[in-house]
Amino acid sequence: MGNEFKQLSNSYPRYKFIFASRDELNITDRDSVNNLFNSFVPSYCINCAAYTAVDKAETGIEEAFNVNSKATAILAATCKEFNTQFIHISTDYVFDGTASVPYTEESKTNPVSIYGKSKLEGEQKATEANPGSIIIRTAWVYSQFGKNFVKTMLRLMNDKTEIAVVNDQVGSPTYAADLAIAIMRIISSGNWHPGLYHFSNQGIISWFDFANAIKELTGSNCKVNPISTSQYPTPARRPAYSVLDSTKISKAYNIPLTGWEQSLKICLQRIQEQNSVQNQ
């Protein structure tokens, strides 16, 4: 997400963006956060940091809660102190995935993994520390940057002739660039409506469907086989149904909701362009 904002920043010249890496800012340390805020006194703070290693979180419990909960509380409280508007990014993993209709902001939470529990606690602590916060839940995030499903599929399809992908977990993929644009629309709108929002691209597919779309759009010859979640056991449970209803954020900030396939095409094109530059 941070790199997506870096790429987007040139489109918003009236804002001065400050990007802090984990080496430059320890968000789990109150003094470190306070020092940065004293130096820049930001108008807005967008928390793109998270412990997202879902399976590792099952044993790395302390680290997951430090980054996803403790740090979020520190950022939220510091934002309130400095009169900074706080935007925090959360996840569909706060739900148990047993629904059959898209989750709204009023849907009951029930995380089934340490990652989900740490992210839900982060939401709660942010709201307690700073009721003026905006929290945006998203799902199945991918980008040309970092590690994510799309880049993993591209690598596997390049290295293997056959792969297996689960077909009984469904959701709506979210292009990180679209989420960054949505957040900047909130900031540039001049309106601030605190609370909880959902945002994802539109359409409901399985991971298997997503992998097949990547295969077709890239012209790969790799065979994609559907398997069940029980055939691919992982340390952390995943929600079987991760569809979010994005109506609220779309209406509140006039944000257009893009179909997942359209956004995937754009991302794949950018990855191809990025690879071409790197190979020159």
Description of the molecule:
The chain is α/β, with parallel strands linked by helices and 280 residues long. The protein is built from nine helices and eleven strands. The protein has helices spanning 2-8, 30-40, 61-81, 114-129, 149-159, 176-188, 207-218, 247-253, 260-278; strands at 44-47, 85-91, 134-138, 141-142, 162-166, 170-171, 174-175, 195-198, 205-206, 223-227, 241-242. The two termini are 26 Å apart. 37% of the residues are buried.
Q: What would CATH call the homologous superfamily? A: NAD(P)-binding Rossmann-like Domain
Query: How many helices?
Result: 9
Give the end-to-end Cα distance, rounded to a whole number of Å. 26 Å
Q: What is the domain tally? A: 1
The level 1 CATH classification is Alpha Beta
Biggest sheet, open or closed, and with what strands and sense? Answer: 4 strands, parallel
Mean pLDDT: 96
Residue fraction in strands: 5-15%
Approximate shape: globular
- Helix/strand class: alpha/beta
